[in-house]
Write a structure and sequence with these properties.
Blueprint (H helix, E strand, L loop, with lengths): L7 H17 L6 H46 L4 H8 L2
Helix pairs in contact: 1-2, 2-3
Amino acid sequence: MAPFFNGRTKFAHSLFNLITTTLFAKNIRIKKEFELYAQKELKYLYTIGQKSLATIFELGKAYQSCFELIQKLSFQHQEKKPLLLSLLQK
């Protein structure tokens, strides 16, 4: 599924940012406060990561199905210009 989202490296980086931002998007300005918060939230990191990955993979499968359907329809109807143009518009 990564090719649909700018490749494996960018996809993995986006996933990492999503998961860490979900847990650590808090305005903390003191090192000690951050460490306490991180220690408290760290136990949820794996669970949130797994839930996020499951959701993202579900969405990725749906995206791939839609992409493949549009591609199939565009090949089937390439002689019908108005229909083809509507299928290929982003």
